[in-house]
Automatic annotation (TrEMBL):
One of its GO terms (molecular function) is ABC-type transporter activity. One of its GO terms (cellular component) is plasma membrane. The keyword Transmembrane applies. Pfam families: ABC2_membrane_2. It comes from Acetobacterium woodii (strain ATCC 29683 / DSM 1030 / JCM 2381 / KCTC 1655 / WB1). The chain crosses the membrane at residues 12-30, 75-96, 117-145, 157-178, 190-209, 235-258. Keywords: Membrane, Transmembrane, Transmembrane helix. This is Transport protein.
Amino acid sequence: MNILLKELKATIKSLIIWCLAQVFIIYAGMMKYQGFSDSKVDVTALFSSFPKEMLVVFGIGTVDISKVAGFYSVFFLYFMLLAAIHATMLGAVIVSKEERDHCADFIYTKPIRRFQVILPKLFAGVINILIFNMITLVASLFFIAQHNNGNSLFSKVSLTMLALFILQLFFLTLGTFLGSLLKNTKRATSLSATFIMVFFLISIAVDLYNKLDFLKYLTPFKSFNAANLMLDGQIAAPSAAILLLLSLIFTALTFIAFNQRDLAT
């Protein structure tokens, strides 16, 4: 319990910053929607004249972005990207920061096993991403209601946040695995960032070129379709199951790799 509380205290400042960034993205997105709505411009026709490459990069597909639900679904790409960076970096650092700070001997020489140290760290990571997710949910409901005649689209937004949390779990455990596998925290965070960038570029490439559609199975960013979540109220159950399974595998690998590594003090 002491380790859990210590980790939560150590991560609270960064968590606040990440949450504020997410809230700002939601606020800015809804303000942009309001601007389009007030201008009376046919947004769909306007964006249809843009190059496909530009629309893909900005996450604009075939959804009707003249509606709040469609416009909000466009921002799911940014939610995933920000949440992935936060979760992966958190996971990579939380299991190895004692070595980075040269104080590993103060905790790992105590009469407890390594898994008894790693387990509360993982719990702290899950609590962090859950708080991040809940802040995203509350901010989304609030700002959507402000621009949708009081209708917050609660059920659809909640389903979207469930998909986001599953993605967060995947990236958190990926980060903990990399953090436990590599001896250097900077290497772990750098490799984590590389994975995220590769996953993101693959998702962009899949949207740009139909012939690369088979690559969608290699990136978690294509596991869920924002339009299906926000417009149809449907979540891809197979994708959710695969990501949860991978999260369990990465968790097991985290314990195995960390138990076998030599700790630098």
